[in-house]
Amino acid sequence: TAMNGTAFENFVCVIYNVSFMNCTWNVSRTAQGDTQYFLYWKSSRREDFMECQNYIKDNHGRHTGCRFQNVIIENKRAYFLVNASRSGQIIQSYEKNIDLYTIEKLTPPLNVTVNCTGLSYRCEIQWQRPRTSHVKRDRCFKYEIDVENM
Could you tell me if 77 and 103 are in contact, meaning their C-beta atoms sit under 8 angstroms apart? Predict the structure, then answer.
């Protein structure tokens, strides 16, 4: 379903590698060819919206996403606005608010080491928590270990 008739769908943002964020959307087949999309965002209610500086484009030059750097998660809620425009006129707007910590894709645990002793068939596995910009306590993480016998 198109968002409010804007003929684009599936607005999704993901934060990866601590401070990079991609936001993307799909342009539906019903969108007219000269429709262009502009993304604005702010990381607190009091700020002014800023336009995307690094658009992702499709083969027709239409904006289908944005790449962000130096995103600070903390406990921030971000506010997103996408305008669909044709011939310089805004034809539709779509807004979405996202708590940034909910869209972070964590890096793998760091410095994983495995020490096994052949005599007792015991192994000790150690690691450090993933890099993240906003979680400071180790107990906030849960881990799952999958052991396969070769």
Answer: no
- pLDDT tens per residue across span 97-147: 999 999 999 888 999 999 988 777 788 999 998 888 787 777 888 899 888
- From the list 131, 11, 105, 17, the residue with the least C-alpha distance to 66 is 11
Do 79 and 85 meet the contact criterion of CB atoms below 8 Å apart? no
Q: How far is CA 4 from CA 82, 94, 120, in A?
A: 11, 7, 64
The amino acid present at 68, given as its one-letter code, is F
Structure token digits, residue 146: 């999958």
Query: In this structure, which amino acid lies at residue 119?
Result: L
The residue assigned the tokens 């995307």 is 52
pLDDT in tens, 36-83: 999 999 988 899 999 999 999 999 899 999 999 999 888 789 999 999
pTM: 0.81
Bridge partner list, 104: 15
Cα–Cα distance for residue pair 112/128, rounded to 1 Å = 7
CATH of 8-102, one of 3.60.15.10, 2.60.40.2470, 2.60.40.10, 3.40.50.1000: 2.60.40.10
- State how beta strands 35-42 and 50-51 pair: antiparallel
